[in-house]
Amino acid sequence: MNWVTPARPATDRIACMWLIRCFIDRDAVFQCVPEANVLEVAGLLKGNSFDTCGADYSHLPLPGGGHLCTLETLIAAYHLEEDPALVRLAKIVHAAGIACDLHTDPLGVGLLALGVGGLDVEADDHQLLAHGMFIYDALYAWCRRQFDAATGDEAGRR
Questions:
Q1: Interval 118-147: pLDDT, tens
Q2: Could you tell me the sign of the dihedral formed by the alpha carbons of 125, 130, 132, 136, in that order?
Q3: Which class for 152: exposed (0-12), middle (13-18), buried (19 or more C-beta within 10 A)?
Q4: What does DSSP say about strands 60-61 and 29-33: parallel, antiparallel, or unpaired?
């Protein structure tokens, strides 16, 4: 399946690409295009669009105010909320990806720094994804470790 998103992916968008490839569509092909063309390209490719206004998956308003980040939207859409490590990771991404919520998780600032800094050191969007895959694999493993230590469960793999 083709997944189409705006070019120059950073924090939330890279997290979404990681989630899609690891939990939703292992054979995902990502197309990073100018934001104005995302919906058109997704339609032409019969693919899914994400992380832009009007996309299949994007930020969603919450009933009491605020928004879900796109990662949280995907987790809900694909019923992945039962994985506490993914839920924990989503809280970190939410803090990093929703400017007014940066204070909601202490790890958000560091993840935001990696996402924004990555844009400055890597010009190729697919290389950004390759580097991001390691970062999100490591962050997910850390989240699993936190959950496993709290419950006494053996560490699991996705």
A1: 999 999 999 999 999 999 999 999 999 998
A2: positive
A3: exposed
A4: unpaired
Instruction: Spell out a b/e string for 29-61, using b for 16 or more CB atoms within 10 Å of the CB, else e.
Output: ebbbbeeeebbebbeeeebbbbbbeebbbbbee
pTM comes to 0.92
- Write the CB contacts of 34 (distance below 8 Å, at least 6 apart in sequence): 6, 7
Give yes or no for a contact between 87 and 81, defined as CB atoms under 8 angstroms apart. Answer: yes
* Pairwise CA distance, residues 110 & 129, whole Å: 18
SS (H, E, C) 86-104: HHHHHHHHHHHHCHHHHHH
